[in-house]
Amino acid sequence: MKKNNKNTTQASLLNKIESREAVIGVIGLGYVGLPLAIHFGHQGFKVIGFDVDKRKIDMLYQGKSYIKHIKMEPVSTKIKEGKLEATVDFSRLGEADCILICVPTPLTDKMEPDLSYVLDTTNSIAGSLRAGQIIVLESTTYPGTTEEMLLPRLEINGMTVGEEFFLAYSPEREDPGNRNYDAANIPKVVGGVTPACLEIASSLYNCITQSVPVSCTRVAEMTKILENTFRSVNIALVNELKVLGHKMGIDVFEVINAAATKPFGYTPFYPGPGLGGHCIPIDPFYLSWKAKEYDFSTRFIQLAGEINVSMPYYVIDRTIEALNQYEKSLKGSKILVLGVAYKKDIDDERESPGYTIMKMLLEKGAIVSYNDPWIPELKQTRKYNFEKKSVPITPELLQGMDAVVIVTDHSAYDYAEIVRHSNLIIDTRNATDKVDGTDGKVFFA
User: Are residues 243 and 334 in the same domain?
Assistant: First the structure.
């Protein structure tokens, strides 16, 4: 009799998904959760978005964007159609048949995983968990999180995973600002705690894109770590070569572009002032932390992390060196930071090296201003609270600065005009490479 019950529960949820009658709950309406909510809404599902930030909820209902690259028209349309709701009321989690967890997984000050957001969310789900629900964790984390941390908190009231409720892991693969790829055309790796969990989760994601089933949640968790560690290691390599290139008088960007002409066996990566975004600066450290349980040291990964973390310090050293050539000290100098977003043409400043660079400049006595056309005001973060607003770029502003540090190479910047009116430029992105008149004025960092 119990076998029939579990088959009925599984079949019922699959039917709801296939008929678009399932209600999708998305927890965390940020860079990952909001696009997911939109895409499931496009496929005819009713979606309830959950977030602890009431400001976000209010802005959605006012038709205002808090993520600039996401258009609000689809959101407003779905809200008017009754296909999308947003709320801070987590007691409504029981209304959702499919719950997707898209909350942050940062690092602590000791560079250890901080799963507090995930665990608080899981506890909220457990409070209203009912038969016939599937929970999918999307937040990046170390292998074993889903089964070791989420499952024990959900397997309550006599309910069994794979029978009464279902649990899976599917790592987010968002690339903010990428116009070619989004949640609708990026394949979704999916791992389930049981075969039934995998079948349901795969069916769910097949509604918006192509699912890639794997054998278990640990494989799915490891997949995301591999993707971002691959990038971290390769970026560390070119960052180290950039530093060496400066000492040897070699332009590493020219080297990289020349190597990129090889049609096989090489993928170009480009150096910068450090890593940013929620994934690449964090994910490798999650794996390194977990590896300690197995008496294993991920030396290669840790070294890459150390190199990338050191790059903002290198930018400061190059700034000091450049100012010295003009017989100026960093202390008391007026410095303009161009760009605080972690990459060009987005308003995402999570883990941005720009914050670290600004902090060090201020600590060394510089007078710091910033401009970012995507970020008009610096938000308070877990680490920083600068209370600064973006200043407009004018010839007078540039001429009044002792140095301009290009941290983010936004397309909106007129680099020829910036070079023309600036006294000194520290370029961390090779943004002024094609500009005339840079000799003696531009230092690459």
Answer: yes
Rounded Cα distance between 97 and 304, Å, is 41
Task: Compute the distance between CA of residue 278 and CA of residue 74 in angstroms, rounded to an integer.
Answer: 25
Q: Which of 159, 187, 215 is the last residue of a domain?
A: 215
Rounded to whole angstroms, the Cα distance separating 70 from 333 reads 38
Residue 328, burial from CB neighbour count under 10 angstroms (0-12, 13-18, 19+): middle
pLDDT digits (tens, 9 = 90+) for 292-333: 899 998 998 889 988 999 999 999 999 999 999 999 999 999
Average pLDDT over residues 342-367: 93
Same domain, 121 and 171: yes
Residue 224 contacts residue 189 (beta carbons within 8 Å): yes
- From 90, 103, 101, 88, select the one nearest 52 (Cα to Cα): 88
> Average of pLDDT values for 125-147?
96
Least confident window among 102-106, 177-181, 295-299:
177-181
Residue 279 designated active-site: yes
- Contacts for 214 with CB less than 8 Å, ≥ 6 apart: 189, 190, 191, 220, 223
- The reply to whether 9 and 106 lie within a common domain is yes
CA distance 359 to 167: 42
Asked which of 80-84, 273-277, 311-315 is least confident by mean pLDDT, the reply is: 273-277
Q: Is residue 224 part of a domain?
A: no
Both tokens of residue 335?
A: 């410095």
Per-residue pLDDT averaged across 22-41, rounded?
94
- Cα separations (Å) of 62 from 24, 30, 46, 47, 79? 22, 17, 20, 18, 10
- pTM, two decimals, is 0.90
Give the list of residues 6+ apart from residue 428 with CB closer than 8 angstroms, or none.
Answer: 272, 273, 315, 405, 406, 407, 444, 445
Between residues 278 and 252, which one has the greater pLDDT?
252
Residue 320 CA to residue 209 CA, distance in Å, equals: 49
